[in-house]
Design goal:
The chain is about 40% helix and about 15% strand. Strand 1, helix 1 (about 15-25) and strand 2 (about 30-35) form a beta-alpha-beta unit. It has helices at about 15-25, 40-50, 70-75, 100-120, 155-175, 195-205, 225-235, 270-285, 305-315, 320-335, and strands spanning about 5-10, 30-35, 60, 80-85, 125-130, 175-180, 185, 210, 220, 220-225, 260-265, 270, 290.
Amino acid sequence: MNIKKIFITGAAGFIGFHLSKRLLDNGATVVGLDNLNDYYDPTLKQARLDQLTPHAEFTHINEDMSDRRAMEQLFKEHTFDAVVNLAAQAGVRYSLINPHSYINTNIVGFVNILEGCRHSGVKHLVYASSSSVYGANTNMPFSVHQNVDHPVSLYAASKKSNELMAHAYSHLFGLKTTGLRFFTVYGPWGRPDMALFLFTKAILEDRPIDVFNNGKMKRDFTYIDDIVEGVYRVIHRLPEPNTNWTGDDPDPGTSYCPFKTYNIGNNNQVELMRYIEVLEECLGKKAEKNFMPLQPGDVPATFANVDDLVRDVDFKPNTPIETGIKNFVDWYRSYYKV
C-alpha cells in the first residue's frame, strides 16, 4: 500500500510530534493540524512544532477540528492517503471538571474527521483510542476481543464512542478504520499533566508528589518510540473484514467490515512504586510521597494483550522503564536546563 501523504491531527502533541517526525524521516508528506490550545503549556507544543516546521514536506494548519467548516475546507484542499487522528481532549481527571471539551473535541471533532475521510476517498483512517476504554474490566491482560461497555470516566466513554463511530463508517461507506488503544505513554517531549512529568518537576523542586491509590496502582507503561513504531506499521496495514465474524457471537475487536482495533502497550505491568523508584534513581534524589486514595475515574490497573499487534504487524513494544525513564529525565534536564 503506497501511503505518501498523511494528515495528522494533534501534530504538536506528544504522540503526534514523534509520529510526524518518524513519517517525515521516512519520506512521507505530512499535513499537521494543531490549534495549540492551553490545556497544557502551549510553549512546549510550539517547541515541538518548531522541530517539524523546517521540514520541506511538513505543513502546519492551525485550526480546531471541531470547526466543521474549517475541516470541510481542509479536506477539499488536500487529498490524503491516510489520516491519523491523535488530537483529543486528553486526561481522565480533567473530564470531571470540563466535560464539554471532551464532547467538542473527541466527538464533534471526530465526526468531522470521519466525514472528511468519507467524502475525499481516504484509504485508511487510524485513530487514537485508549486503554481507559477497559473501564471496570478486571480480566487481565486486557484484550481487544473483550467487551468494553463499562467506562468509568467521560474521557473513556468518548474514546469508546470513537470506536463505535468508526465502525458505523466502516459499515456504511467501506471506510477502512483502525483504532489504537494506547497504554500509559511516556518519554521525552511528554505531556506535563502526566505522572512522570509531574513527579520529575516536583522532586527537582523539593515538593512532595501525590501517589494515588496509596501506591497500589499498576500500569502498562509504554515508551513513546514503541508507540510510534506500532502506529507507523499499522498505518501501512489496511484492515480487512473478518470473514469468520458472526452476529451470533460478535467479536468486539474485528468486524465483517474493514474495521480493527489494537492494543499498543508494553505487555508488562509495573507497580507505580517501582516506577517512582526508577525515577528517583535517575534523578539521584528521593521523593517525598503524599499517599492518596484512588481518584474518581481512575482504574487501579492496566495490562495490554498485544497478540494481535504482534501477529499482524510483527511488532511487540519492549522498552524497559529503566531505559525509558532515563531518556525522559535526560530530555527534561536538557529542555528545562535543570
